[in-house]
Amino acid sequence: MHNRQEAITFKKLKPAVEELAKRTFHKSHLAQIKSVYPTAYEFAQRKFKTFAQEEWDLVLTPTIKTQNMTTQDLLARRRQFHGALLDKVKNHHTEFLSSLTPPLVIAKHNLTRWHPEFALEKVPDVELASLPETPTTEIHTSGKQILESARRLFNSNVRNSPVTNLGALFEKQEQTTTVKGIPEALLRKVREKQASKALMAMTKSAEKEKEMQVCGRLPEIARFVRNLFVTERKAVLPLDVVLEKLGNSYRTNLNKSDMEHHLKVISTKVPGWLVFHKVRNCVFIKLDKNADLSGVLNKLEKLVTEMKETQ
Fold first, then answer.
1. Helical H segments across the chain, by residue range
2. Cα distance between residue 136 and residue 167, in whole Å
3. How does pLDDT run across 130-165, given as a tens digit for each residue?
4. What DSSP state is assigned to residue 261?
5. Which distant-in-sequence residues (6+ apart) come within 8 Å of 100 by Cβ?
6. Distance (Å, whole) CA 130 – CA 189
7. Cβ contacts of 73 within 8 Å, gap of 6 or more
8. How far apart are the first and last CA of the chain?
9. φ, ψ (nearest 5 deg) of residue 222
10. DSSP structure class, residue 123
11. Nearest Cα to Cα of residue 266 among 227, 310, 217
């Protein structure tokens, strides 16, 4: 509508948004959008003439530097809105962390996931920003009507600002400093260790998470590789054959590139058991079938355990 030089009224916007979002659209949603991204739109009440009648309607005007809105403008505005909304949730998360025992402190830019006990679905609704109200014109014919109008105006101006009660949101369970039979110092160490684990989990990078997932699959893939070579009754197989056979039998849908990466990690972590050989333009895999499979699996499982302890 903006690029067609049409006035974006709430009356036009409501059915269009409801058709797209499949849910009811209210002015309160616009108030929340303004609260999250105050400079996204300019809001004003404008009078329109329809069927010889004049009606007021809320008009939105996008705040952009150019006359027409491009796809790049839409993407940039969407990213800015998403970032601002995420920042509000992170603020609630920070307050939740400070209410724990012991309290946790983590910079918002280092946060990669929420605390396991953070109730995301209980985060308060976004506060409502003020929108221009429809002007009203009253004709007073008596002193009583003037007094009633003044009383309504006074009552409407006396408003209490909403206060978010985070204490009610994140109810802190009363924790005793001592438990029967357990020293207080030991309890403190346990809580500090739990807090440290939670802190590391919330700041774990995507690369570390992916590395952890890869290592977690290695024992099972190693078992499949061993069974494949035993079934084929060969000590050397082409890499393409191994990747195709593993892709058909492994429970997780991994592409050939990912499966090859897993095999190379196994070759690195258990030297000599799985060896890559390149002959001309073909890559082969040689398996040491005399090696004890349980020993190989123990090494890979130990690797997973060590990674979990250091995460």
1. 10-21, 27-36, 71-98, 143-157, 166-169, 184-202, 206-232, 239-249, 256-269, 293-310
2. 40
3. 999 888 755 555 555 556 666 665 565 544 444 444
4. H
5. 115, 117, 195
6. 49
7. 64, 66
8. 51
9. -60, -40
10. S
11. 217
